[in-house]
Write a structure and sequence with these properties.
This protein has ten helices and 23 strands. It is an alpha/beta fold and 455 residues long. It binds thymidine-5'-diphosphate and magnesium ion (MG).
Length: 455
Amino acid sequence: MAKPAIRFVCAECGATHSKWSGRCDSCGAWNTISEEAPLSAGPGKKSLGAARGRTVPLGDLATEDAPPPRMISGMAELDRVLGDGLVEASAVMVGGDPGIGKSTLLLQAAASFARAGSKAIYISGEEATSQVRMRARRLGLADAPVKLGAETNLRNILTTLEAEAPEVAILDSIQTLWSDTVDSAPGSVSQVRACCHELTTFAKRSGTSVILVGHVTKEGQIAGPRVVEHMVDTVLYFEGERGHQFRILRAVKNRFGAADEIGVFEMTGGGLAEVGNPSALFLSGRDAPAPGAVVFAGIEGTRPVLCEVQALVAPSALANARRTVVGWDSSRLSMILAVLEARCGIPFIGLDVYLNIAGGLRISEPAADLAVAAALLSAREDVALPPDMAIFGEISLSGALRPVGQTENRLKEAAKLGFTKALAPAGSKTGTTAGLSVQQMPDLATVVGDMFGAG
Ligand code: TYD
Ligand code: MG
């Protein structure tokens, strides 16, 4: 049999190359390519062509299968993000920046599962058991029947899991695990890939649900990226701004539920507290009307979330004025500035623009366009909008406003929180929402003229 060729894999994008180079042709990153040992067939194994396999049973599409059994943790925010509980025999990856609170979240989840009657094992590769116990005591979880271990060798971990047969196994983190079948350092692409593959296979085979923790690189990808996202059933990101107490658990991929669903937590001295009504939390601390601050009625997953969009516009001392965005897409901001300039005659040349989504929330919906434009206008013209007005709508390059999905849910949430006015694109299906007067505008120029008297 021919010797399998050695491959070189980029740790950033996962592209494979036939030879080493300093820079990855595929993503342009430097010093990310490393050698990866080929997958060998192993001693005694024949090539696929030589031995016949067994016939795979085939069914038709109409066959009705029972829905997959799920375990409820009792942490409502976590259960919702997973799609109404953790599916048995599934593999879940929880990614996030170091220090964001992944270990805290999963220790609390382990305790919740254990208290709800599922057998839960927590294996830490990063901390000693004494450290984890200390944290558990501080979080008031010491009495939960969780089994705790500290190990990094995958072979030992799998042997333990086989023997214990838990319903939930939490492994913190995938980057610390190493498999002795792979000849490279823990945390390298080939190790992460091999360990993840072994563990997902174990989950399917044994019925244990495996939850893996993964640290994310600064580019926002799980280190040894992409190579594991496709292997697991569910990928959750735990995100939040450092210095803010809010943490958001976001489903970016879920074979058993809606992607883009979020769970909201608050980091407190006693661990992560669930936030059942995020809108109230993101809007807390608003009092007097302030120029540059508007409320966006957004949808996160299946849930409406109201949050504050803040803008600051100030004369720039720089040749290239600053554009700083936190919590939103910076190219989308450039687009809105361009539309304001080209379609409404409001230039931002020579002005620094800062845009912030309050509370550490990250928004990706185009429905926030109109709220962002309103915040920018309000900041630039120094005109405060009514504090009880909720805004949403997509802006097209022509300056026209386009209706967005789930209009009624957005309005209902706004009314529930005591808002009395809403600004929406013309043609929105508003339904009837008691106590809320909805202004519908056809384009951005009308908004500028009507609300800011400019343009
Ligand atoms: P941790 O779960 O260790 O983060 P990760 O596993 O993602 O690296 O959380 C670390 C941070 O959380 C740490 O900076 C302190 C903070 N924290 C609290 O504020 N309250 C708490 O009760 C706990 C346990 C941690
Ligand atoms: Mg940790």
